[in-house]
Amino acid sequence: MRTSSNPAFRNLPTSPGGYARFGDAPAGLGGGFGGGPAGQAPVSGASDRPLTVDDVVQKTALNAVVTIGVGVLTAISGFYLLGIVGFIVGLVVALIIIFKQSTNPALVLTYSVSQGLALGALTGALEASSNRYAGIGFQAILGVVGVFIGMLVVYKTGAIRVTPRLTKMIIGAAIGVFVLMLANLVIGFFTDGGLGLRTGGPLAIIFSLACIAIGAFMLLLDFDQADQAVKAGVPARFAWYLAFGFMTTLVWLYIEILQLLSYFRD
């Protein structure tokens, strides 16, 4: 069983082996849920039936729409300080969902709302700072949609197979990027521009492109993890948990694409 670079998916129980594809029928309940001898979950309601692709798509789409809607309203309102509240609430809720592996719809939707506040405030403040940033938020959304569709096509066609080796490489690259971001932030407190990863120069552009590429491959791993969950037939309520996992990747992609677009506008 492969693990994802996305912490929300890393501990999600799935069936061992094989490369599942979207559209495969569930292969029976399993993966460690429930209390039966074989780890099967009793089907006692709609939330306990086997997970389907439609469940994941619907919950992910709902959370994406909520984030975009709240983001647009926040950007229009001009209350950009709400972004700080959104960031803090989002971080706390994300940690709760990840460590408790929660499938609570209220928590997942709260995360999406908080990210809408944070991203909306960030985008609104950027666009309000100069006319050259007008419409940059819409372009960033289009960029995220393009990456999402592109990686879905890549995954479904099998152009790039998700293997354990590829997974390790992507996880390693993601960790490396995180370390560089942290180092850039810390050094930035003592020097002007830190390591130069966010100054808008050639190095910053290359770094943003690398972050977007890694985010895209993380999305590829997330597709695979969701696919394995569908094949394993985990309870349908875990669609909320999977939707949260997708949202964490999409939020990161939006931030990096927004950052890159701002460099080109400058």
UniProtKB/TrEMBL annotation:
Keywords: Membrane, Transmembrane, Transmembrane helix
Transmembrane segments: 79-99, 132-154, 166-190, 202-221, 241-264
Keyword Membrane among UniProt keywords: yes
One matching Pfam family: BaxI_1
Keyword ATP-binding: no
InterPro entries xref list: BaxI_1-like
Recorded superkingdom: Bacteria
This protein's name: Bax inhibitor-1/YccA family protein
Organism: Actinomycetospora endophytica
